[in-house]
Write a structure and sequence with these properties.
single chain, alpha/beta, Rossmann fold, eight-stranded mixed sheet, globular, AB_hydrolase_fold, Pro_imino_pep
Length: 307
């Protein structure tokens, strides 16, 4: 049976400026028998492409799945001229690039799609940060389930984990390029070396994964790093939700891999702080159980979202 798919650009007004959020909906949102799932990609600054395996949930479990590129990323509006995408503002009008921006965009998308009465969220890496902040700040009554995949409870814990793992596999030269890049191309080379062990161990690396990385960290001078640079240099650089996790009131599933960039101590606060929580560790995965153990991962999600 062919799946219904639709792509649209959703207007998003922020600080008086109208941006556009690129969205793909797979499945029928009018079918009230299954709760739609919103997929939040990582980064900040990547794209939805590497999250596309979640289309399996639409095919096999009839769950409508919503993919989108967060503002400043990929096909959505940018803050600088990018691949023919002209920003909807002058540089003097650019709003603060903070977590509030992405929470507001997610709220706008939910309102536009008219799914506020019932929806689930899965967030990978930074996408989990966005998901937990949305749940805490908005307290949406229609949110039914949260899933955090290889995510983080604080950037300090994430930084500690990445530093440990990079010390185990990267030379001093590549470690310097990872944390203090001299160019985007060299940074990407260091990132790829780290990811080969702890990021995505699939051989070859799926094209969708490479495509997502290209949007924010490309060997060529064609990426827009505005969002990751602004976020890590600003609010996200010292971010933590550890002391606010008791405000996550919906059933939550935590997933990480045995060889994950998000080591156990990075996700442990989720398990300790969220009242209704489960934690599953994927034995054969790094940071991309979505690809590395795809069938088991999708089965796990379908079961949890059906509870």
């Amino acid at each position: 049976m062919a799946l219904n798919e639709r792509i649209e650009e959703v207007p998003f007004v922020y600080y008086g400026i109208t941006y556009k959020t690129w969205v793909k909906v797979v499945g029928d949102l009018r079918d009230n028998t299954r709760t739609p799932l919103i997929v939040l990609h990582g980064g900040p600054g990547l794209s939805h492409d590497y999250m596309m395996p979640h289309i399996d949930l639409a095919k096999d479990s009839s769950i409508p799945v919503i993919f989108y590129d967060q503002v400043g990323s990929a096909r959505s509006s940018h803050f600088i001229p990018y691949r023919g995408i002209v920003p909807p503002h002058t540089s003097d009008e650019t709003p603060p690039i903070t977590i509030d921006l992405f929470v507001a965009e997610l709220s706008n998308l939910i309102n536009h799609l008219k799914i506020g009465a019932a929806f689930d969220i899965v967030g990978h890496s930074w996408g989990g940060v966005l998901g937990v902040e949305y749940a805490i700040r908005v307290q949406p009554p229609g949110l039914k389930h949260l899933v955090f995949v290889s995510s983080l409870a604080s950037t300090a814990l994430w930084g500690q984990s990445v530093m440990q793992l990079s010390n185990s596999v990267l030379s001093p030269e590549y470690r310097n390029e990872l944390f203090q890049p001299s160019s985007m191309g060299k940074h990407r080379e260091a990132l790829d070396k780290l990811h080969a062990v702890y990021g995505c161990t699939c051989v070859p690396v799926p094209d969708e994964v490479k495509r997502s990385l290209d949007y924010a960290a490309s060997e060529k001078d064609v990426c827009d790093a505005t969002v990751p640079q602004k976020m890590f240099a600003g609010e996200f650089g010292t971010w933590s939700c550890v002391d606010r996790l008791d405000r996550v009131l919906v059933p939550t599933l935590i997933i990480n891999g045995r060889h994950d960039l998000a080591q156990d101590f990075v996700v442990q606060p989720f398990f300790e702080g969220i009242p209704k929580v489960k934690w599953v560790k994927m034995a054969k995965s790094s940071h991309m159980a979505i690809w590395e153990e795809r069938d088991q991962y999708m089965s796990l999600l379908a079961q949890f979202l059906g509870e």
